[in-house]
Design goal:
Elements lengths: L12 E2 H5 L12 H17 L12 E6 L2 E7 L8 H9 L7 E4 L13 H7 L4 E4 L11 H8 L3 E4 L3 H7 L1 H9 L3 E9 L17 H12 L3 E5 H7 L14 E6 L18 E6 L4 H9 L3 E5 L4 H10 L4 E4 L3 H9 L5 E7 L26 E9 L2 E8 L7
Parallel strand pairs: 4-5, 5-6, 7-12, 7-13, 8-9, 8-12, 9-10, 10-11
Antiparallel strand pairs: 1-3, 2-3, 2-4, 13-15, 14-15
């Protein structure tokens, strides 16, 4: 994954030309609304280049258009580095004067690690700004838009807003709730099993679904499993087919009953963190530390305490790839906001075969946790069901 701004070439490019392989439609859209939407989609394409690399900041892309041609573009590569608008303005140079600037998130209007982007936009002489969504951060929350309008700049808000919100849903959740965004992912057979009665689980789904999971990992800051998953599955939890960064691999284990040999202890491939109950097996803790594995004690050791710890580490999104025993408390204590269930057209059977979610203490079907915003799509021979959990009373 590239981690640098995309500068315009000296000669201005048409919107269709710059889309290249990112868009199957090589013709300019008709109408101002369609053109604005097309340019906002380009912002989102640019922003995605930094997925998983910007925490605790959002992913943002920006495009500058003059006379129907893109004259500059860029994206935010990571916290502490210039924002997308700054890269786009630098690429455009004097061509930004009188131009339209597109950005998927409201320009900031406060001093943080970097100066406010709103001032840079005003100073560049931009005539019009198209914003995908208002920044949920209280430090911004409309202030950037207000600053631009007071400077006489025309501002349009809400273009491709739903797509913009979805891209930065983890950032919005972190800002609003003070916790990272939790995603529970699992793969199961048509009859709801994640493995056989003997514990064998490779592979439930096909290659296309596994590639999709690696893309998901690349966009997250951490991926979490329990000790049982390490013992029975020996996962790598990497993005090996993506050619991109790997997330922090996290093992939650109260007793540290962990195998001596596991892919996760190879920290040259990707970093690994073990979260343990306070005082758990000092000898194993020392052994892990000698292997380059970070060990942190949490009291109590729960999904909620882990998410609080991840928040302190500035994480945006956490992927739960655990078994049913850990998935149930993660759901129950509000550590999961989104569920991705990959369903394979297979039947394995077995009364004792493991299932994706353990006991939630629900006695009646009317107590079942319903997902909202559900989408269903094929992924190779498998099916992906994706949706959001409605927060329960008292959950984060």
């Amino acid at each position: 994954m590239e981690n640098f701004p995309v500068d315009a070439q000296p000669a201005a490019r048409t919107a269709a030309a710059v889309e290249g392989s990112d868009s199957p439609d090589q013709s300019l859209p008709s109408g101002a609304g369609a053109f604005d939407a097309s340019m906002m989609q380009r912002c989102l394409t640019l922003a995605r280049r930094a997925l998983g690399q910007t925490a605790p900041n959002p992913v943002v892309g920006s495009v500058i258009v003059r006379n129907g041609q893109i004259v500059g573009e860029g994206f935010h590569p990571g916290a502490g580095q210039p924002h997308a608008e700054v890269f786009a303005l630098k690429a455009a140079g004097e061509l930004a004067r009188g131009a339209t600037l597109y950005v998927n998130l409201e320009p900031c209007n406060h001093y943080g690690r970097t100066p406010p982007c709103s001032e840079a936009v005003v100073a560049a002489g931009v005539a019009r700004v198209v914003v995908g969504m208002v920044d949920p951060n209280p430090l911004v929350a409309g202030g950037g838009i207000e600053r631009l309008r007071k400077a006489g700049i025309e501002v349009v808000v809400g273009v491709e807003e739903e797509a913009c919100r979805q891209l930065n849903e983890a950032f919005a959740h972190r800002i609003t709730h003070g916790r990272p965004f939790g995603i529970l992912k699992y793969a199961m057979t048509l009859d709801g099993k994640i493995g056989t009665t003997a514990g064998h689980s490779a592979w439930v789904t096909g290659a296309e679904a596994r590639f999709e999971v690696q893309r998901l990992r690349a966009a997250c800051d951490a991926v979490v499993v329990g000790g049982a998953t390490v013992r029975f599955d020996n996962p790598k939890l990497t993005c090996r087919d993506m050619g991109s960064r790997n997330p922090l691999r996290v093992v939650m284990s109260r007793s540290l009953d962990l195998p001596g040999e596991a892919h996760l202890w190879d920290t040259d491939v990707a970093p690994t963190l073990v979260l343990a109950q306070a005082g758990a097996n000092p000898e194993v803790q020392k052994w892990l530390a000698n292997r380059g594995v970070e060990v942190v004690e949490l009291t109590p050791l729960t999904p909620a305490s882990a998410m609080a710890y991840f928040y302190d580490r500035q994480f945006l999104s956490v992927l739960w790839e655990c078994g049913g025993t850990l998935a149930a408390p993660a759901i129950a204590d509000g550590s999961v906001q989104k569920v991705l269930a990959f369903i394979a057209p297979k039947i394995i059977g077995g009364h004792s075969a493991p299932t994706p979610v353990g006991d939630l203490g629900l006695a009646a079907m009317t107590d079942a946790l319903a997902l909202h915003g559900v989408t269903v799509r094929p992924v190779g021979a498998d099916c992906l069901v994706e949706g959001y959990l409605t927060p329960s009373a008292g959950s984060t």
